[in-house]
Amino acid sequence: MAARFGHLLPIVLGGDIGAYALARQLHEATGNRVALVASEPIVAITRSRYIDVVHQEAGAPGEQTVAIIERLTADRPERSAVVMANTDAAAALIAANRERLEPTCVLPFPDLEVMERVSDKASFSRLCAEVGVATPREVIVDLADPACTPPLDPEPLGVPFPLVAKAAIGSDYDRVSFEGKRKIWFIDDAQELAAMWQALESADYRSPFLLQERIPGDDTAMRSVTVYMDSTGAMRLVGSARVLLEDHAPWLIGNPVSMITEAFPGLWRATEALLTHAGYRGFANLDIKVDPRDGRELFFEVNPRIGRNSFYLSAAGANPMTVMLDDLVCDMRGPRTEVTTQVLYSLVPYRLLRRYLADPELRGRADSLARGLADPLRDPTERSVRRRLTIEAQRLNQYRKFARHYPISSNDRSR
């Protein structure tokens, strides 16, 4: 445990797996208890031995969340608390209230103007073009414009079917809820596109939406890069992973659930160029896909936060919280940490993962790493029997969930 952080109060916003992973990493970096602000936290959190849950009502306005942070940190000295979160909406809330929370709290997020530039899919594509980073073909449909007529045929706009559709500003999308909501929409034809526009209209969604060419390739074509840009603007920590399997439930589609950490120096250089050009500070997580047709590495987005699966860095030997706290709390910046150790990270049972690995080489690599499989929820220091049994039951439930949302065809049963 790092004695230099003994005075620190770690605060986490959120109650899901990603929030628990942040709390675990903060606890391991500091040795301190973690205050977690949430309305309905998962059992892994409520039964944790080192997390103190601060309940707030479901759907509470951001002002209430900020007020809770201020109450938790009242009368504390400068740089004696840190606030972490793992959703776009929470990240935007923290950035928007920087003046209220600093200097008591350190906030590893970019300024709001920079956050909006990199997380808005339209301006993100322009930033990528300026530094020579490739992105998929896309078109922005401005649903915020009352005169906008959403297109039913995007091909004349340069994006033919099939395509992917998603919110251009993730924090705006986080704030709405409606039946049939999906994180990402996979659209094959005009009928499906019209149904999506109708769903957004019924939800009174008024924010730009992105139509993007669908790049072929399965989940294993995806790459994840996680970085920390320090307070001087230098890349102080970088790690990456090859995705093996993603969640396929509509509300979580695209979230990796199994990955192998792997160094991708070319992606690291491109990420550094992009974020340096943007004037970025704090944690960022980037989604990239390798186009199997030509090998191009296409950058999909920058998440202005550390990402739901940041624990893959800790599993590979580099707790990102320590690097960040050294910078923001202690004003200490050592050499860049580059994560090169290979580990298997998985939120689903290994036997389930293996069913979906068609590539023999990837199966072999996963097999060689399976004994040390890392899951952030499986913290050996947690002592609650109920917690452990709940987590294992939820892991087993993944078989049913994947059978429903991502069935394996009869031709693939030999995997």
TrEMBL record:
Keywords in alphabetical order: ATP-binding, Nucleotide-binding
UniProt xrefs under InterPro entries: ATP-grasp
Domain ATP-grasp: 125-329
GO terms assigned for molecular function: ATP binding; metal ion binding
Domain of life: Bacteria
Record-given protein name: Carbamoyl phosphate synthase-like protein
Naturally occurring in which organism (per UniProt): Actinomyces slackii
Taxonomic classification: Bacteria, Bacillati, Actinomycetota, Actinomycetes, Actinomycetales
